Amino acid sequence: MKIEIEIPEYSDDKGITRTWEDGYDINAKIFGNEIVIEANKEGLITLAKHLLALAQENIDSGFHFHYEDMHGLEDGSVSFVIEKK
Q1: What is the pLDDT of residues 9-32, one digit of tens each?
Q2: What is the full DSSP assignment across 19-69?
Q3: pLDDT tens readout for residues 31-65
Q4: Measured between alpha carbons, how far is 53 from 16 in angstroms, rounded to an integer?
Q5: What are the residue boundaries of the structural domains of the chain, listed by start?
Q6: What separation in angstroms does the CA of 72 have from each of 40, 75, 83?
Q7: Cα dihedral angle (71, 74, 78, 84), rounded to 10 degrees?
Q8: Phi, psi of 53 (to 5 degrees)
């Protein structure tokens, strides 16, 4: 399987742009001491794009994305943050 993904480049003026695939579905739950992230194909591609965006060379350590049920996740999902180290 080959998927081509375009990642918007970070710029000091615009910052970083996150894109979301049409029809994405992402849900996050906590089971015991584990975080479980469930996603359909479009949701997984969306998360992959976000991770690749954070991996850009010119993005500083500490830059992060918040995911919440009112911003990107299904209702009832637990919030989580992905941060560049």
Answers
A1: 998 888 888 999 999 999 999 999
A2: ---TT--EEEEEETTEEEEEE-HHHHHHHHHHHHHHT-TTSPTT-EEEEBT
A3: 999 999 999 999 999 999 999 999 999 999 999 99
A4: 7
A5: 1-85
A6: 13, 9, 16
A7: -50
A8: -65, -45
